[in-house]
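idk why but the lab printer keeps eating my pages so im just putting this in chat instead. protein + RBV:
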Amino acid sequence: MTVSPISDRLADVESAVADGRTKIDWAYEHMPILQSLRADFEAEQPFAGLTIGMALHVEAKTAALVETLAAGGAEVAITGCNPLSTHDDVSAALDAHEAITSYAEHGVDETGYYDAIEAVIAHEPDITVDDGGDLVFRIHEEHPELIDSIIGGSEETTTGVHRLRSMDADDALDYPVFAVNDTPMKRLFDNVHGTGEASLSSIAMTTNLSWAGKTVVVGGFGQCGRGVARKAAGQNASVVVTEVDPRRALEAHMEGYEVLPMAEAAKKGDVFITTTGNRDVITPEHVQHMQDGVILANAGHFDVEIDLDGLADLAVEQRAVRDGVREYKLEDGRRINVLAEGRLVNLATPVSLGHPVEVMDQSFGIQAVAVRELATNGDAYDAGVHEVPDALDREVATIKLEAEDIQIDELTDEQAAYLDSWSQGT
Ligand code: RBV
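predcted complex ->
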């Protein structure tokens, strides 16, 4: 089915556009990296004549990225990458821009979600920007005829990069895609601080409950898990970590967290937050061990980490107990509360705002330079997953340091020579 842009679907477009505009302006005001890149793009027009198709969480920071690309001459078509993370007013404000079409709408069902992905693809993008990989996968599955004219893509998140690498390993990825997630400027900030802060604040705002004195079980100790664990500990919670990788488990142990298998952690936790990127991290077997009133939340990209079907089978009753909280009542009376339908809690509760502006400025700064690299130098990259060139990561870091007025040292010639030489010992 064809989907029309969001503006055709809202009752009061004008007030939505005004509200969205206010949100975008606030975010952009705090995004010095995008401001700096936008000034360059306005002068150089690197995207003139190009169409960029995007599927990202459509909210204010993302909008600032989209407008930065449009300022560089791009036509942009965008939709969401999760049905619950879209802010309709921001989507409307984007759609009001003459070079931007936004199809994103909050709360669409699965059909509406994929129809909107199709609508973006119908713009025949030269470059794709994904968070989770849906555009790349859909194009490969349903529209392979477009691949020849696609310069390349970029991918925002761990799960998307993981999917792309599997595709690449199967020789099934037919255009180059930059792994934006894997850059230091993204991964060490957005994944750690962004996921940690936004997950905890979304859970706290949704439940109005305190972290202090709680036992928080963190599923997975990757970049996101360590952020969630660190911030929860910082809020005076006791933290338990579950892992499948022996080195990460040891790392969590050495950071001072208790490490347990989920079946054991299930008995102790008050709040469970999954960050693994894998399915079935919390299953009905785990739920059988849980205390009355526990809170289950997922911070991974897809809603597969908590087995909600299994939980529904186990429950004798279900009801909404607060906005964004669903209670599953078990036969023996215990209540299990699931936030945001098991979708990424940092973006998908009714009060979630996504990651803080500062970290998204970094991530989207990398997105912007990655897209610029494709537009200006795309021929240099073969089909497959590519690291973002380190020089681009440094460029974005340098802009940020300048904006923060932080000075650092430079290597002297002698130091540079020393680092390069293998003959200098004692
Ligand atoms: N993320 N986006 C936001 N626009 O508010 N918040 C988080 C936003 C991204 C983040 O970079 C992460 O990799 C991805 O969402 C998970 O879908």
